[in-house]
Amino acid sequence: MRMSPGLRKFTLMTHVASSVGWLGAVGAFLALAVAGVVRDDAVTLQAVNVAMDLIGWFVIVPLCLASVLSGLAQSLGTEWGLIRHYWVLMKALITIPCSVLLIPHIRPARQLAEAAVPTILATPELNVLQIELAADAAAAFMALLITVALAVYKPRGFTRYGWRKQHDARPLHAPS
Amino acid sequence: MKTSTAGDAARNTETPRYPGMPRWFKVLGLVVLAGFVLLKLFKLTLPGSHGSHGFATHDLPAAEVHDNGDEP
C-alpha cells in the first residue's frame, strides 16, 4: 500500500512534530522530576507534582500515541517499510516498548499529584517515587534522543527481508 | 595491483550476497539493552523500592491522600 504524496507529507509532518514534541515534553518532565528530588519545600513539590501529572497525561501520552501511529503509517505506507532498513527497525524497537511502558511508568505522577500534601510529601516512600520518576524520564529522554538521531542520520543497512525485496523488485526510490 | 578478470565481471552481474547485520545495529542494541538493565538495577537498589511501577505497590492510605486540610 502506498500513500499519495499529499498524505505522505501530512503523516511525515505529523510524525516529525509529534516525535520532537515528545522529546521536548519528556525533557520538561525530567526537569520537573529532578526538581522534585532536589527541592524539599512544600510549595515547590506541590507545583512540581501537579505539573508532572498534567504534562504526563495531556502532553506526553498524546504525543507518544501520535508519534507511534504516524511512524507506523509513514513506514508501512512508503517504500521504507517497517522491517526493510535496520535504522527503521531500531526506531520501532525503541519507540514501541517505550510507548507500552509509558502508562505504568507515568502513573506515579498522578498519585504524587493527588498526594500533594506537605505532611505526606516528606515520607521516604514518596521520595523514592520521585527518584524513580526522574530515572525513568532520563532514560526515556536518552532513548528518544537516539531515535531522533537515527531518523536524521539514517545509518545504512538492509535487513535480510529488505535486501531480498531490494533485489527482487525495482530499486527503492530515495525518500525525502 | 589487482586487475579485473572475466570471473569478476561475471560475478558482478549476479545478485550480491547479503552483507549481514551492520555493526552499528548490534552495538546500539547492546547499549539500549544495557541501559534498560542498569535502570532496572538502579531502581531495585533504591531503599524502599519494590522494583515495580505504579502506586499500587506503595502503601499510602486513601484517607491521607485526600486530606488537604493543612495546606500552607
**How many β-strands of chain A, per DSSP?**
0
The proportion of residues in beta strands of chain A is under 5%
Tell me the helix content of chain B. 40-55%
Instruction: Note the run of SSEs of chain B as H and E.
Output: HHH
**Structural Rg of chain A:** 20 Å
What is the succession of H and E elements of chain A? HHHHHH
Shape of chain B: rod-shaped
- What is the structural class of chain A? mainly alpha
How far the N terminus sits from the C terminus of chain A, by CA atoms, comes to 18 Å
Q: Give the termini distance of chain B in whole angstroms.
A: 84 Å
Number of strands of chain B: 0
What is the subunit arrangement here?
Answer: heterodimer
Biggest sheet record of chain A: none
Shape of chain A: elongated
Helical residue percent band of chain A: over 70%
Short description:
With 176 residues, chain A is mostly helical. Chain A is built from six helices and no strands.
Topology, please?
The complex is a heterodimer of chains A (176) and B (72).
Chain A: H1 5-38, H2 42-76, H3 86-114, H4 118-121, H5 124-153, H6 160-168
Chain B: H1 6-13, H2 23-45, H3 62-65
Key attributes of the depicted protein:
heterodimer, A: 176 residues, mainly alpha, 6 helices, elongated, B: 72 residues, 49% helix, 0% strand, rod-shaped
In words, what does this structure look like?
The complex is a heterodimer of chains A (176) and B (72). Chain A is an all-alpha fold. Helices cover 80% and strands 0% of the residues of chain A. Chain B has three helices and no strands. Chain B starts with 5 loop residues before the first helix and ends in a 7-residue tail after the last helix. The chains are: A mainly alpha (176), B mainly alpha (72). At the A-B interface, helix 3, helix 4, helix 5 and helix 6 of A face helix 2 of B.
